[in-house]
Design brief:
683 residues, mainly alpha, Arc Repressor Mutant, subunit A, Serine Threonine Protein Phosphatase 5, Tetratricopeptide repeat, 5 strands, globular
């Protein structure tokens, strides 16, 4: 298998086994990048000299000799098995210079260009799949490490424009397939980052309209107009003006599609307004059943009936497990449903609306802390307002909701609500209610380190209970909980079985978000295998991180990849990343001391440790304390060392961070030993 090259991000090369090829210094990498920009054309040696030293310094006296040295080193790296004094086959001398004879499939940018071109001739479904795959190849801006080099500027711009076109073409495919809700998050970010692209605003407004958000669609068009007039001094083009008029007129040709929001008192379940003809039936039998059922619902259930709100929450619950766009849309509409129920002044209805959203949760950091807090507040208000004769199951669902939405906080209310919900569910012998309550119990088993065995027991009961009663999503949750717990206990044989079981259930029942977690677990498994090189694990981390974009889980996504890479470096005794552009997200306080040390600033590291907050009581609790311990050992901060040893001691038998199923720092015992040695050392 030939060498592959990546330029959609930092310039990288991989060998036939997929391992990263060490390219030595920045000049070597620059020579390779310059030849890749040339796209199989010869680059004269003189041009290489000009480009490599342009704008920086005068070329050395023997610049040509230096370039030849770089080329020779690159040849050895790219063709390590080539016998001495035989002709190179990949980086070839030709005429006055050099040419890189990479195949058409060997460079990710070339494959990306071909994929985008080919998508134009495919059906919408196949085009969407092709574009999703191709956009996943991007690891950052093209030729990211040569942003200031004039020789890369035109190619960087061309590829950036091609990517923007692909993002918009993907959105068009989603809209054509009736998947507007999935398109909204990407388009929102796309328009914000590229506010002068009128097509981005057009597609975003259309997607919002097709998900029933007419007001938001018009607000987007107004925002686009304001930006264009204020910044460019020009009015929106005809396409934006026409769309605004069509939305105001609710023009039939805008075709709302099948993924408008769940039913409200003002719309049919299929998204069409009452009195408006339903959308045309699809040839798909499932779509025909859906259209017939929703039409019957609309005929039977009167407009304004309260049962419509409960039906809407049922749809939101199902929508939340369908993928990133669905999860984000469900989260956004959930609070609207709660608010609408509360406005009707019926506490029992509001309680049912809140408690019906029993979507399993595995990650211990809220995706939207504001929404979580408002949901908890609403649940507490309704609990206080319920009449004495309200059914216990209704109360238990409110309590389970409080336990789930209080995750990651230090409130004593979360654990209390979890215990109360579990107790009621067991007394009522209600399997679905107990599964919901156990999810809340799991979220509240982080009050100290070393609780993987307790979480494993919760996961085991979830799996057994859910399998007996056909509660598929909670059965998957149980397997993921056990995957995490067995990983923390270094029992990868059983963790592997739970990963496989979760993936099989996810495939059978169309639960795409499960793969996000099992993919990251494979990274932990690779890191703990003992045979993987750090570079191989780092590449696996980056691969696992790509699907997080748009997965609808910002509480999981932000800062995770840098944190995982930091843990990998710490475990192998390497300094932290020092790139100032790294977004550490919520993990910045625990990364800062190690980053300061990597910059050679121990005093800054000491100051950062002095202001270090208590890590959240969640799946990364032990990992964050191990990072703090490593920094404290490096600067002799005995106070932090004492705190770390005390907090980590209960987890002495576990792997630090592996309980998250996302990253690992190795055995906690090793850090405890290092802390003990450090504290025994004289001051």
């Amino acid at each position: 298998m030939e060498v592959a090259f990546g330029v959609l991000g930092p310039v990288t090369a991989w060998d036939g086994a997929g391992d990263v090829i060490a390219l030595r210094g920045p000049r070597h990498r620059a020579v390779l990048a310059r030849l890749l920009v040339a796209r199989r054309r010869v680059v004269p040696v003189g041009r290489l000299v000009e480009d490599l030293w342009a704008g920086r310094e005068e070329p050395p006296a023997d610049a040509v000799g230096a370039v030849r040295t770089f080329v020779a080193a690159l040849r050895r790296a790219l063709e390590p098995e080539r016998p001495p004094r035989t002709r190179a086959r990949l980086l070839v001398t030709e005429g006055p210079g050099y040419v890189l004879r990479a195949g058409p499939e060997a460079v990710d940018a070339w494959r990306f260009e071909e994929a985008v071109t080919a998508a134009g001739a495919l059906s919408e479904a196949r085009a969407l799949a092709r574009l999703e795959e191709a956009l996943g190849w991007w690891r950052g801006p093209a030729y990211a490490d040569f942003a200031d080099d004039t020789w890369a500027r035109a190619e960087r711009s061309r590829l950036a424009e091609l990517r923007l076109h692909a993002v918009e073409r993907r959105a068009e495919a989603r809209l054509a397939l009736g998947r507007a809700a999935e398109a909204v998050p990407d388009l929102d970010a796309h328009a914000a980052e590229h506010p002068w692209r009128e097509n981005a605003w057009r597609l975003l407004a259309l997607a919002l309209y097709r998900t029933g958000r007419q007001g938001d669609a018009l607000a987007v068009l107004r925002r686009a107009r304001t930006l264009l007039v204020a910044q460019l001094g020009t009015d929106p083009g005809p396409a934006l003006r026409r769309l605004e008029a069509d939305i105001l007129a609710q023009a039939p040709h805008l075709d709302p599609g099948p993924d408008r929001p769940p039913t409200t008192p003002w719309t049919r379940p299929d998204g069409t307004a009452r009195g408006q003809a339903p959308t045309a039936a699809s040839d798909d039998p499932a779509e025909q059943v859906w259209a017939a059922a929703t039409a019957a619902y609309d005929r039977t259930v009167a407009a304004g009936a309260r049962v419509r709100l409960e039906s809407a929450v049922g749809l939101l619950r199902d929508l939340a497990v369908t993928g990133g766009g669905g999860l984000e849309a469900a989260r956004g509409h959930r609070l609207a449903a709660i608010t609408a129920a509360a406005e009707l002044g019926d506490p029992e209805l509001t309680a049912r609306v809140i408690g019906a959203y029993d979507v399993p949760a595995i990650w211990t950091r809220a995706d939207d802390p504001r929404l979580a807090a408002e949901t908890v507040a609403a649940a507490e208000r309704v609990l206080a307002e319920l009449p004495p004769d309200a059914h216990l199951a209704v109360r238990a669902r409110l309590l389970a909701t409080i336990a789930l939405e209080s995750r990651g906080t230090r409130s004593a209310r979360g654990p209390q609500a979890a215990r109360q919900a579990e107790g009621i569910a067991r007394r009522l012998n209600d399997p679905a209610l107990l599964a919901f309550a156990l999810n809340g119990v799991f979220m509240q088993t982080f009050h100290r380190a070393g609780l993987a065995p307790q979480r494993d027991a919760v996961g085991a009961e979830l799996v057994a209970l859910s399998a007996r009663h056909g509660l598929v999503t909670h059965e998957v949750l149980g397997h993921l909980v056990r995957l995490q717990a067995r990983g923390a206990l270094a029992d990868f044989t059983r963790a592997d079985r739970h990963a496989t079981a979760a993936e099989e259930l996810a495939e059978r029942h169309e639960l795409p978000l499960v793969g996000v977690f099992t993919r990251w677990y494979r990274v932990v498994r690779l890191a703990e295998s003992g045979g993987a090189r750090p570079e191989e694990v780092a590449a696996a981390c980056r691969d696992a991180a790509r699907p997080l974009a748009g997965a609808g889980m910002p509480g999981l996504e932000r800062g995770l990849l840098p944190l995982a890479l930091l843990c990998l470096r710490v475990r192998h005794g390497r300094p932290a990343q020092t790139d100032d552009s790294v977004d550490w997200g919520p993990y910045e306080p625990w990364a800062r001391p190690l980053v300061s040390l990597a910059h050679g600033r121990p005093n800054d590291a000491r100051a950062a440790l002095r202001s270090l907050p208590e890590p959240p009581r969640d799946l990364l609790f032990e990992a964050l304390w191990c990072l703090a311990a490593r920094a404290a050992l490096a600067v002799g901060d005995r106070a932090t060392m004492e705190r770390a040893r005390s907090e980590l001691a209960p987890a002495a038998a576990e792997l630090a961070g592996a309980g998250s199923g996302l990253l690992t720092l190795g055995p906690v015992a090793r850090y405890l030993d290092e802390l003990a040695d450090g504290l025994r050392s004289p001051r």
